[in-house]
Design a protein that fits this description.
This protein is of the alpha/beta class. It folds into two domains: about 160 residues, Thiolase/Chalcone synthase (Peroxisomal Thiolase, Chain A, domain 1, 3-Layer(aba) Sandwich); about 90 residues, no CATH class. The strands form two sheets. Strands 1-5-4-2-3 form a five-stranded mixed sheet, with helices on both faces. It has a five-stranded mixed sheet with strand order 6-10-9-7-8, with helices on one face. Helix 6 links the parallel strand 7 and strand 8.
Length: about 300
């Protein structure tokens, strides 16, 4: 999605301007983060329709469809993963106003859509849609969109599902480790959790990352803990003087960062989740644990 989010004001600040507790803060608080890794699923892509679909899709991007990979195993659709995350975490009991599926890899089967499932998962039928095409920075775009819709329409709860799947019958050039999902539940109740600061900066060259991140993270001081996503090389891209740096490793382009958050954020100090997509140039930064509830 490239159109401005509803109610959004164009950001005319320099990309390296410090993150701001007003301009970059979501109107919602991050209440829960639930992570799941999925075993081999039941969805297959060796039928005639899938062969035509993936052959056309790969051809559009100059890649070779590899039919010998299609029967090698079964995978999980984003719809199946979304259902499992929502139901196992009991999220279907929450009155969610907007639900967004964010992913970098394409879905296993284009005949099933996570957004369709999400629109039916709650009695009131929340607004639901998918966000992709921004690589590893896609979850940051989804969070900002969820915040924009909540602000404009006065929504009390939002859900962002971050999804990865690795069953593809063509070479991607990326390391894909399996199927996984992270559910991020956002709430207007400040008692619920932490209020994230989120910035999504497009068109960032690798050589500019270090200086840009030094400026963005400047307000949080030397005690800041950073989780570096698959697109970040800490020695090359992160400024000096950080309190702690953790790497997620490769294999899960969208979920790795948010799985690290779901595993437990450090208490009492800021945590910055940072990732960069070298193809699109999109840079995502999310800082939690740095603000008091608004008075």
């Amino acid at each position: 999605m490239s159109a401005p989010a509803p109610g959004a004001v164009p950001d005319r600040r320099p990309a390296d301007a410090p993150l701001d507790a007003v301009a970059d803060a979501l109107p919602l608080w991050l209440e829960r983060a639930v992570h799941q890794v999925f075993p081999a699923g039941s969805g297959r892509i060796d039928d005639a329709f899938s062969a035509r679909h993936f052959s056309d899709l790969a051809g559009e991007y100059g890649r070779a469809y590899r039919p010998e990979l299609a029967p090698a195993g079964a995978g999980n659709t984003f719809a199946a993963m979304a259902r499992s995350l929502v139901e196992s975490a009991g999220l279907d009991r929450w009155p969610v106003g907007v639900a967004i599926a964010a992913h970098a890899t394409p879905d296993l089967d284009c005949r099933y859509a996570a957004a369709t499932y999400l629109s039916e998962a709650w009695p009131d039928g929340p607004l639901s849609f998918g966000v992709s095409e921004q690589g590893t920075a896609t979850p940051f775009a989804a969070l900002r969109l969820a915040g924009a819709y909540a602000r404009r329409h006065g929504l009390r709860k939002a859900l962002v599902l971050v999804l990865d799947q690795a069953t593809l019958p063509y070479a991607t050039g990326a390391e894909l480790g399996g199927d996984a999902g992270v559910a991020l539940l956002l709430s207007a109740d400040p008692v619920a959790g932490v209020r994230p600061l989120v910035r999504h900066t497009p068109g960032v060259a690798v050589e500019d990352l270090r200086a840009l991140l030094a400026g963005q993270l400047a307000p949080f001081g030397p005690d800041t803990a950073v989780v570096a996503g698959p697109g970040i090389d800490p020695g090359r891209d992160l400024p000096a003087g950080l309190g702690e740096v953790r790497e997620t490793g490769k294999g899960f382009p969208c979920t790795a960062l948010w799985a690290a958050y779901a595993a437990g954020a450090p208490a009492g100090r800021p945590l910055a989740l940072v990732d960069h997509d070298p193809v699109s140039g999109d840079l995502g930064v999310c800082v939690t644990g740095s603000q008091e509830p608004p008075r």
